[in-house]
Fold each of these.
Amino acid sequence: MSSVPPVSPDPGPTIEPVLASAVQAELPVNEVARLAALNRYGVLDTPAEQAFDDITTVAAALCNVPIAVITLVDEHRQWFKAVVGLDGTTETPRSVAFCAHAILEPDQILEVPDALDDPRFARNPLVLGEPNIRFYAGAPLVSPDGQALGTLCVIDRVPRHLSPRERNALASLARQVVAQLELRHLVADLSLRSTTDVLTGAWNRRAFDQRLAAEWNRHARTRSPLGLLMIDVDHFKDFNDRFGHPTGDGALVQIVQSLLQPLRSNDFLARFGGEEFVAILPDADATGASEAAERVRAAVEGTAWTFHPLTVSIGAVAAQPEHGIDPHTLVAQADRALYRAKQAGRNRVHLFERWN
Ligand SMILES: Nc1nc2c(ncn2[C@@H]2O[C@H](COP(=O)(O)OP(=O)(O)OP(=O)(O)O)[C@@H](O)[C@H]2O)c(=O)[nH]1
C-alpha cells in the first residue's frame, strides 16, 4: 500500500457555475400595519375557493399567459390563495417572491418584460429554475385602508409585454380580489356579531342552540358523555334595585369573566338570557359536570367584586347516549336542577341524576 495520495486528473479550465440568488425586496415602510391588515382578513392557509380560482382563470385567459396567481405576502413567505399553471405549489419564500417587490408600489402594476434583463430577478431561482419565469406582471391587492396585501400576477415563460387593455383588465381583476376579501371579512364579522352577546361578549342564545346541536351529534356519534350547566345569578333583582341597572350590567360583564376562568378551552359558555348563563361541557359525565359546576360556583364566590359580592346557583346534568334523551330534555333537566339549587338556599350546585 502506498502512502502517496493519488494524483487527481487535470480538471481543465474552470467554469463558473451560475448561482441562483435572489435580490431581496426591501420591507415596505408600513410593514407592521400591512401585516396587521393582512391578518385581519383571516385568509392565509384557507382552502381554495371558486370565486378566487375564477379570477386567476380569467386573468390567465385575458392576458394569454400560462400562469396566474393570487398571492398574499406574509411575513416570511408568499402564500397562494388561487393559482393557475403551477401544479401543487402553494407558497414560496418571500425572499424569492417577485410580488414582494410589487407591493412596494401599491399604486402601480410591476411589469418585468424579461426577467433575465432585470438585475433584481436575473439570478432568481424561479427564473433560472422551475417555473422558469421570464415575464411577470403583478397588480397589487390594495385594501381600502391602502395596504398592499399581495398581488394578482400573470407569468409567462417567454419575454413579453402587457397591452394597455391587458393592464387595465389586470388592475380591475385585482380590485375584484380585494372586493371578495372584503365581502368574506364582512360576512365573518356579521356572523360573529349575530352569535355574540353585545353586553358581555359571551356567546348568545343563537350560538348556544347551534353549538348544542353540533355537540349533541358528536355525543351520539362518539358515544361520549355530554355535560351541561345552567347558571343563574342569585338575588340579582336586589342588586339592580340597590346599585342601579348600569352597575348590574357591569356586574354581568364581570360574572362572565369569573365563569370562564375555571372552564376548559373546549367548554362553551353562553348567555342564555337575562342573568342566566349556560355552559356546554363536552365529554363531561355526571361527576365531571358537578365538579366543573362546583369550580364555577367557587370562582364566582371568590371574585373580587367591584360593588357587592354576587353568587350563582347551578343546575348540572350529564347525558350518556344510553339515556336516550334529546337536547331539549337535557336543557330542561338542567333547568330543573337549577330550580332545586335555588330552593335549597342558592350559592350551590344541584346535580340532576334521575332520568326515569
Ligand atoms: N343590569 C341588568 N339586569 C338584568 C339584565 N338582564 C336581566 N336582569 C335583571 O335580572 C333580574 C332577575 O331577577 P329575578 O328573575 O327575580 O331573579 P333574582 O333576583 O336573581 O333572584 P333569584 O334568581 O331567585 O336568586 C331582574 O331584575 C332583571 O332586570 C341585564 O342585562 N342587565
Amino acid sequence: MEKAIYQHFHYHGQPETNIEEARNCHFCQLRSFATHDRLPISIVNEVDDQALNPDFRFIDHTIIAPDVYIPDASFRTGCDCKKGGDCMYGKCTCLDEMAPGPDEDKEDGHNDSRRRKRYAYYSSGAKRDTLRGRILNSREPIYECHAECNCSAQCPNRVVERGRTIPLQIFRTEDRGWGVRSLVGIKKGQFVDRYLGEIITSDEADRRRADSSVARRKDVYLFALDKFYDPQSEDQLLRQPPLEVDGEYMSGPTRFINHSCSPNMRIFARVGAHADKRTHDLALFAIRDIQKDEELTFDYVNGESVLDDDMHDHYKIKDMTKCLCGTPECRGYLW
Ligand SMILES: C[S@@+](CC[C@H](N)C(=O)[O-])C[C@H]1O[C@@H](n2cnc3c(N)ncnc32)[C@H](O)[C@@H]1O
C-alpha cells in the first residue's frame, strides 16, 4: 500500500480520532465528493515520505469570501430553449455574445444559414463535447447553458457545467513536488477540470502577496478573474478591479498541476449566467491528445519569458526559480 494511504488508515484506526480530525484528513475530504465513486481522485507517493501539506483542504466548489459582492439570484437568467438541441444555435440567448465561426455548419454536415451553429463544442462524432478548433486556438470565453436555463441537464452546451469526467491522480514527482496525471487518455479539446479556490477581492489578493516571502511564488496560486474586466463597461460590476481565485490552501486537484513551457492544457474563462461574469470559471481543457498516465501541465505565465536582462544579472538570477519542465521549448526560469 502506498505510504500516504497507509498513514491514512493507521490514523483512522486510532480510537481517539474525532470528527474534526477526520475533516482535516485529505482522503476523507476527497471521499466526501459526490463524484468519488465514479471518478475518484487518488494520491500516491512512490518517491519519498512526504504527505500533502496538512493546512491544505480539498474542496469541490468555489468558496466566495464574505466581502465579495455576488449579484442577487434574480439577476441570474437563462435561455428559454425548449430542447437542449436548440442551444447549439444562434437563437439560444446564452450564446448572444458568442461569434459564429465561418465553417462550423459544414464541419457538422449542415449548410442552413438560418440555423447557424454558434456554441463552443463539436456536437457529434468522435469529437463530440470537445472544444472546436476555432475556440481552442483563441482566447475567447466559453458561454454555456446553466441551472437557470429551460433546457435540460443533458443540453450539449453544458460541458463544464456537467463537471469533470476524468479520474485524476495526484502523484509525487522526482523533482517538482506533487503533480497530477490522468488515469485515462484525454482528447484534444476535452474539458479536464476547473481551477477552484477562494474568490477574494484584489485588495485581499495584494495583501496575501505582500505576506508571502516571494510574491511571484504566491502568484502561482492566484488567478485574476479578469476576462470581462472593462473600465468602460456599462455594467458597474465589470468596472471594478477583478476578483482573484486563491487555490493555495483550499482547492481541487488542479491546484497541484505543474507548469510546462510546452503544456498539454490551457485555462479558458467559462461563463454560465451572464450576471456571474465577474466570478467566471477557470476551466482547464486539453490542447492536444494526452496519453493515460501522462503528467498534466499548463503554462503558468502564458508564454511570457523571464526578461533576458534578468537572466544575465548575477544578483537577480540567484532569486529566480529554475523551470524543470524538461521540454525542448523550456524557457529556463519560471520567475
Ligand atoms: C501550483 S504549485 C504545483 C504543485 C506543486 N508541485 C506542489 O507540490 O504543491 C506550483 C509550484 O510547483 C513547482 N513547480 C511547478 N512547475 C514547475 C516547473 N516546471 N519547474 C520547477 N518547479 C515547478 C514550483 O515550486 C511552484 O512554486
